[in-house]
Amino acid sequence: MRDVLDELLAWWREGRPVGMGTVVATFRSAPRPPGAAMLVGPGDDGAPPVAVGSVSGGCVEGAVYDLASEVATTGTPVLERYGISDDDAFAVGLTCGGILDVFVERVDRTSFPDLDEVAADIAAGRPVAVATVVEHPDERVLGRRLVIRPGEAAARVSGSLGAERLTDAVTDDAVGLLAGGLSETLTYGPRGERRGEGCRVFVSSHAPRPRMLVFGAIDFAAATARIGSFLGYRVTVCDARPVFATATRFPDADEVVTDWPHRYLAAEVDAGRIDGRTVVCVLTHDPKFDVPVLDLALGLDLAYVGAMGSRRTHDDRLARLREAGVSDDALARLHSPIGLDLGSRTPEETAVSIAAEIVSARWGGSGRALTTTDGRIHHEGAHRD
Length: 385
Known about the structure:
- By secondary structure, the chain is of the alpha/beta class.
- It folds into 3 domains: 104 residues, no CATH class; 93 residues, no CATH class; 160 residues, NAD(P)-binding Rossmann-like Domain (Rossmann fold), CATH 3.40.50.720.
- It has 10 helices and 17 strands.
- This is Xanthine dehydrogenase accessory factor.
């Protein structure tokens, strides 16, 4: 929903109903992750309905467009599965071999009265999750939703899923998903039974952007910050040398900090601003900077920790980290020398190499050319917002 939120909110404020299709589950090589959305909104001056966004990169957009146009009129939500047919691989549009479930609903002020508040939370970077019933034996429950916001003592919840037990179960699970920035479909019994079936609830998590911490204010850091921002990270460049750590040198970074790397990282951990989606790129290749920060980073639950340097620098760094007490298990999580083997030479090429390794680590890719591999192109895994 995030990708189409501006258009959705504009129609919502005008009081004009919109048909919205959301990917709520994927199987095999589905092209878009859970949470991808497509809107079918009213055209101006009698023009045909307008499509915004995508659920499949073009494969089944036509079918979803027709269904969303109908649902926008009837108000009756529909959960539709799209995949390939053994008889005719082109019959339903998903020629990539994947399968996806798309929940199509009407969105207006009545069906989603909290949309403006949710949009404000997302814009401000405040964590919020939206849980929607996408399958239930009682058709009256379909499309009901909760809006969940984490709190110090307990989550703050608006809306109801009908049965109190179902509302409580979904709230508890949504808080956990939100903490990890994960969006996925959960299964319960019709009244919220943990081991039951028949009810599916899609939880769309909108957490603040994941963070990329780049330590070392060098030219490679500028290129890494640029591609990190392109990938959707909130990028911080940190260096203890004020003459190098300037906003002018790193225009693509969200912030530039002058501090010792390990001290800055420790402060961010204490402040609760580091989570399992955070990636750390240590580009200083100076032991007085990189050993203390890597000692700390390798003891945290982070998505990725990489360090730049030659083979000789890497061997020396490992020896220093072992002397500092870092275990072999922790060292095995260190990506060093940083990046995939692309033959990179320039800062920009090296940044592509680093970004490729981060993506590979996130989704479990091999880093090999697809022409040399078999099986699925898109790897499985819970989607992180």
